[in-house]
Amino acid sequence: xxxxxxxxxxxxxxxxxxxxxxxxxxxxxxxxxxxxxxxxxxxxxxxxxxxxxxxxxxxxxxxxxxxxxxxxxxxxxxxxxxxxxxxxxxxxxxxxxxxxxxxxxxxxxxxxxxxxxxxxxxxxxxxxxxxxxxxxxxxxxx
Length: 142
Fold this sequence. Notes:
Elements: H1 4-7, E1 9-10, E2 15-16, H2 21-31, E3 35-39, E4 45-50, H3 51-57, H4 70-73, E5 81-82, H5 87-96, E6 101-106, E7 109-115, H6 116-120, H7 125-136
Parallel strand pairs: 2-3, 5-6
Antiparallel strand pairs: 1-7, 3-4, 6-7
């Protein structure tokens, strides 16, 4: 059985909810990632921040990324998966919620992230094509 822990990218890092978006952008650059899980004061997942969120949700609306926090951008119910979950559960979660990045949790701690690139490296072409179709086909415009 292939698990979430087997396919995830290790070394994911939180951005605390109180951190500003300019700091989040710097961290994304340093880590070479396009998304960061947002943590509350107890290091619990409270959202995901993407580079697109910073640009479209803050900058394009005329807000100052040095004065807007990651927590202000957290919307909806954050999704995550246990490191021991089967890859079929990963696909079901991502497809069901039409998400492209999924934090992986083990013993209540962030241990990695699963992204499209991680799936591409571990799924067959047929599995990947089906996943892409289901995640992107019904995606509502933002």
